[in-house]
Amino acid sequence: MPEQRSGLVVAVTGATGNLGTSVVDALAVDPAVSAVRAIARRSPVPTNGRPAWAPARTTFVEADIARDDLVPLFDGVDVVVHLAWQFQPSRDPVQTWDVNVVGAMRVFDAAAAAGVSALVHASSVGAYSPGSKDVRVTEDWPTHGWQGAAYTREKSYLERVLDRVETRNPDLRVVRMRPAFVFEASASTEQRRLFGGPFIPARLVRPAFVPVFPDIADLVFQGVHSRDVGRAFAAAAVREVSGAFNLAADPVITPATFAEILRARLIPLPASAVRLALDALFTARLVPTDPGLFDAVLRLPIMDSGRARDLLEWAPRHTAQDALAEFVRGVHEVEDAPTPPLSA
User: What's the angle, vertex CA 289, arms to CA 283 and CA 290, rounded to 5?
Assistant: First the structure.
């Protein structure tokens, strides 16, 4: 197994988001980590009568990765974990590019300039080129994304940026984590707002309230619980590993999975009909998410997570179906985490 270092100082960007809270929590209890520097635009505050989130050995730093000088933030840091990401406004791809791509490039450059030993980047299944739903792909599958969606364009572009970072910084250990769709109850309100918008109230997304669900042939993808992904990122930070790691739980999610969780009846429906409806809702500004993301989901490959199992000793503790069911429960019960990005 790869060597595990100790006494590490780890900086995490996007530390208060869905994935960030899970990664910081995992790092904060890892015996190989002596301190966590949690970087976010806003620090945790008491929310809805709950105390502020305060993981052990963690210091919060407020900074904007797209604007602030990041080199001082990485002074004395051994590992930088880059998670910061902005999904909206999807109607303004220039703004999301500025934060997601230019901001990431600033993080990578600052990490190299500060002399950190390792960079762990949150890539995604969305970075992959379209692939089969029947054969699982390993980490050597092409990463050209689906160019019809901003999210997949940005994730795939950053794969090329990391190629350059590795070439220019041969002593920097670079890890690319490629999780499937990440679910958790505490992030469900945030994700409903980001992708469904204010016109899809929580009470509509609950079991027994949705009578039917579209049976779309290619609506087949993978999911994983945020806490399981957090453990994988922590393992990648403290172990002497490099390269890419797929992260996904079983079973594969299909329309039948949604129907079972929502207690809905499946009805055959072509993807083109759903795409037309999503396009109309987006054009009418009733939902904030570009329908190109739906196109991307239909084309995502199914991943093999064997490399993470072997080198990170990683095994999901939650099934993909359980993670999705927890997410749905969190939506209609309006469950929040005590950080600004996740709170209602």
Answer: 65
**218-270, pLDDT tens digit by residue?**
999 999 999 999 999 999 999 999 999 999 999 999 999 999 999 999 999 99
Are 242 and 320 within 8 A, CB to CB? Answer: no
Domains in the chain, start-ordered, CATH in brackets?
8-181+223-248+301-315 (3.40.50.720)
**The two structure tokens encoding residue 318:** 């939650």
User: Distance of CA 120 to CAs 43, 68, 80, 241, Å?
Assistant: 22, 20, 6, 10
List C-alpha distances in Å: 29 to 47, 102, 179, 244.
Answer: 23, 32, 22, 24
What token pair was written down for 12? Answer: 């995490």
CB neighbours of residue 29 within 10 Å: 11
CA 79/CA 101 separation, integer angstroms: 20
pLDDT in tens, 131-149: 999 999 999 999 999 999 9
User: Strands, E, within the chain: which ranges?
Assistant: 8-13, 33-40, 58-62, 79-82, 118-122, 136-137, 173-179, 181-183, 212-215, 221-225, 243-247, 249-253, 265-268, 302-303
CA R_g for the chain: 19
Angstrom distance (rounded) from CA 231 to CA 23? 7
> pLDDT-based confidence at 289, cuts 50/70/90?
confident
Please tell me the pTM assigned to this model: 0.92
d(CA 331, CA 319): 19
